[in-house]
């Protein structure tokens, strides 16, 4: 009989018994609802062992790639070590190797972890100011391209962690970070698929990584990035992205200004509006939305109404946290 390990305890799974039923029978409480693989309430992650592909049906491909599965439909044929989403995120130490400005309110923080940190471009980590105060920041770096972990961090007026990073953190300091998690990243499963990426502010951080990762893996479909801000001063990495578009004919970059006095070379309007006006039919496209929650919410609706499948829309809203809570 397969052995199911959860929370440091091991349980024997009977023949024709699901992971959910096995754990429940041993008094372990796992969130669940429909018991039919529809609601996804019982989603878990396999830390060790393999799960049948059938138990990942209905999950976004980025979740399946991280070994997430539905416990109610999983009848294992071998031993499994499982965890609930986010429960095993862990932590490690990293050294600050560079802090450089991207614009007046945003810096690029580069860290070198003390231990190997597996990640995919676009995922996020938690950065700890102290034992009780942390915030989530998306990775702008790409494994195979960048030597260090990179993050774009905008200073918020009352941001406990962002102000600490901008004003107190120094090169050589040691900081605690979590392991990487999140399902907003590139998978090379459909290299001919068109990609639409929309960002506001430092929502560019994960998309900068995703774009470079896609190009590194020789994505052949069109890749369009729309980066929005209220003024030209809020847009950054313009030269880098324009250079990238010159190197790769399938990458198209459009900076957008929602305020007045739009300079030459910028599109006038909110990024999501400009993107949908220029791309009214998104049938078959993969969509990435990162930044202000209002933009992400509106962008998801616009993309869906333009023909994009909800399973192909990956969203990462940067929610401003209250004290003691995690956010971008």
Structure commentary:
With 328 residues, the chain is an alpha/beta fold. The protein has 3 domains: 3-83, Roll (Ubiquitin-like (UB roll)), CATH 3.10.20.30; 91-178, Translation factors (Elongation Factor Tu (Ef-tu), domain 3); 195-317, Rossmann fold (3-Layer(aba) Sandwich). The protein is 20% helix and 29% strand. It has helices at residues 19-25, 61-65, 160-167, 204-216, 238-247, 271-278, 293-305, and strands spanning 3-6, 9-12, 43-48, 68-70, 80-83, 91-103, 106-113, 124-128, 134-138, 149-154, 174-178, 195-200, 223-229, 251-257, 267-268, 286-291, 313-317. The strands form 3 sheets. A 6-stranded antiparallel β-sheet has the order 9-8-11-6-7-10. It has a 6-stranded parallel β-sheet with strand order 15-14-13-12-16-17, with helices on both faces. The longest helix has 13 residues, at 204-216. The protein starts with a strand and ends in an 11-residue tail after the last strand. Residues 322-328 have low confidence and may be disordered.
Please provide a brief summary of the model.
The chain has 328 residues and is α/β, with parallel strands linked by helices. The protein has 3 domains: 3-83, Beta-grasp domain (Ubiquitin-like (UB roll)), CATH 3.10.20.30; 91-178, Elongation Factor Tu (Ef-tu), domain 3 (Beta Barrel), CATH 2.40.30.10; 195-317, Rossmann fold.
Label this structure with key terms:
Ubiquitin-like (UB roll), six-stranded parallel beta sheet, 17 strands, Elongation Factor Tu (Ef-tu), domain 3, globular, 328 residues
């Amino acid at each position: 009989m397969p052995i199911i390990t959860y929370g440091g305890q091991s349980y024997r799974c009977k023949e024709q018994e699901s992971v959910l039923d096995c754990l429940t029978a041993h008094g372990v409480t796992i969130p669940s609802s429909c018991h039919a693989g529809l609601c996804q309430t019982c989603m878990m992650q396999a830390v060790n062992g393999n799960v049948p592909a059938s138990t990942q049906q209905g999950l976004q491909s980025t979740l399946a790639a991280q070994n997430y599965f539905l416990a109610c439909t999983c009848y294992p044929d071998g031993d499994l070590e499982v965890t609930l989403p986010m429960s095993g995120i862990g932590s490690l130490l990293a050294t600050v190797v560079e802090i450089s400005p991207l614009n007046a309110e945003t810096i690029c923080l580069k860290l070198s972890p003390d231990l190997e940190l597996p990640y995919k471009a676009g995922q996020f980590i938690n950065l700890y100011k102290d034992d009780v105060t942390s915030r989530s920041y998306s990775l702008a770096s790409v494994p195979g391209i960048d030597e260090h972990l990179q993050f774009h961090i905008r200073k918020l007026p009352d941001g406990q962690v962002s102000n600490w990073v901008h004003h107190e953190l120094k090169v050589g300091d040691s900081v605690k970070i979590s392991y990487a998690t999140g399902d907003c990243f590139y998978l090379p499963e459909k290299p001919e698929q068109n990609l639409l990426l929309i960002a506001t502010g430092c929502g560019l951080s994960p998309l900068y990584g995703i774009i470079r990762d896609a190009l590194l893996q020789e994505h052949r479909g069109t890749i369009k990035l729309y980066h929005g801000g209220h003024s030209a001063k809020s847009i950054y990495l313009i030269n880098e992205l324009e250079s990238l578009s010159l190197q790769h004919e399938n990458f198209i970059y459009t900076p957008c200004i929602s305020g007045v006095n739009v300079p030459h070379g910028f599109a006038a309007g909110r990024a999501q509006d400009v993107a949908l006006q220029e791309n009214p039919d998104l049938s078959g496209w993969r969509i990435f939305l990162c930044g202000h929650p209002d933009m992400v919410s509106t962008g998801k609706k616009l993309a869906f109404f333009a023909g994009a499948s909800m399973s192909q829309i990956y969203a990462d809203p940067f929610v401003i946290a209250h004290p003691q809570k995690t956010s971008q």
